[in-house]
Amino acid sequence: MRRSGPFRLAGAAVHRAVVLLFAAFAVFPFYWMVVTAFKQNSDLYVGAMNTAHNPFIFNQAPTLDHVKYLFTETPYPTWLFNTLSVGLIVVAVTLALAVPAGYSLARLSGRWGERLGIGVFLTYLVPSTLLFIPFSRLISILGLQNTTWALVLVYPTFTVPFCTWLLMGFFKSLPAEIEESAMVDGCSRLGATVRVILPLSVPGLLTAVIFSLTLVFQEFVYSLTFISSVEKMTVSVGVPVALIRGDVYYWGSLMAACLVTSVPLAVVYNLFLDRFIGGITGGAVKG
Amino acid sequence: MNMKRDRFLGAVLLLPALAFIALLVGAPFLMALVLAVTTSSAGSLDVTFVGLQNFRDVFGSPVFRTALRNTLVFTLASQAAVILLGNVLAVALKKAFRGRSFVRFLILMPWAAPIALSTLGWLWIFDSTFSAINWILKVSGYFGPGEWYYWLGDTALGMIAVVTVHVWRMLPFTTVIILAGLTSIPEEVHEAADIDGAGFFSKLFHVTIPMMLPILFVAVLFGTVFTFTDMSVVYLLTRGGPYNSTHVLASLAFQEGVLGGDVGRGAAIALFLLPLLVVMAVLMLRRSRRAEVL
């Protein structure tokens, strides 16, 4: 639709206002984290009753004290280490299970494969809040309560279905002729897959790795249920549970922890977003 | 021969993943059903069969009925808001403008950040003494003298807070899915409708909405499941309080089954999540079968 000058200008202004409003809503909690994490305590704990004190800006010089405190005086570095080590093992388990399964569903199992693929994906939707009670039973039977091994055992229950589905879509996007020509050249099916398909699949595999890692960083319910010792916690549980002591909230270092964890995750996630959307929407969008 | 070998290899490659899922999703799921009809406490491993006693107890409790109602209200309210706002935002983001990819990154942040940590950010925003929202309401003159909001200490305000965080968190997810749907409608379809003389509303109801339905379905399906089963937001924001008035099924199951140690009761509460999940699964399977026919 072509509209004349003033209407176009008004339209553009409305468009800009809508975009800005939504962006402000999305970013505000993170902005609030930044302000809190770098404020001096005397600037931070003034109280909202005092209308003369604007809480949205730095009224005094910013400080790195809270960030320093977080990294030197709290178990935050340990939690980061725990999360990363659990994440890496979970990634290894996930790839070992999901790569063969995804390939099989994409190429080898025909009509049945399609149904089975959807079935596998549906297990990704089985929520942790339905399973955490039987799991805590299972884990105490196995003697894994209060160990990070419990998380290593349980986390693949959502990373494997998700990554199998993601990789199935990825393998389907590679033309079947690639292996077939390698097989004509004398490779076995398995040999063709390992030598020809896997090198082409690096972007797909990388996506699976990134999403498994972010899912591990985001997970809260299982970790809250299984881990009780502070030094064994993951970031997403340690920060809300153990950084608050008694009734005393160390908001500066608390918000610093939220910020330092969330922003890198958001950046990495953003880079792989389009593949994620492709995985979720599946056949609903024809690309 | 080759076909047969392929099929065998296919089964071998698939088996480990299927076995893992059967063992670690299937078995706990069955265990949840068993635990719900037994009494057992977290400490001991003896179980006694009690039939539907847990369900009867649970249903008789007013706290449970409040939690059930809250779960439905939270899910419906936040999904309605998210679908409405998500469409507006997706249309706004579809248009090319300077800095669009940066805006997309900013808008995506709530979805990418770990929910437990971003909810802490909101906890601080809703803090009774230092709330940024209260400061604005005070400065703008909305509050009369002595008037004040205790966001998380009040049932109605607490529910508004919980819904706000859910909307904030799910909006990016829904928006990018709707955006993917919008960009998949070829420009020619709109042009053809324009040539046929279709107006804005006629285009909306005869072209855009029908073509968007499959993708909206996906967005609603995931959004509903994620919101309906979530306990992090309520657990971290209000702990179900004041007086258990803002609990949802998941947070109540955690409080009774894990913190309270009444495993059977907790399992019974969590099982109330199941009917909706089954409906969602069936819808998803039916949709995929239709897609196969087409």
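qc> The longest strand of chain A covers residues 244-245.
qc> done
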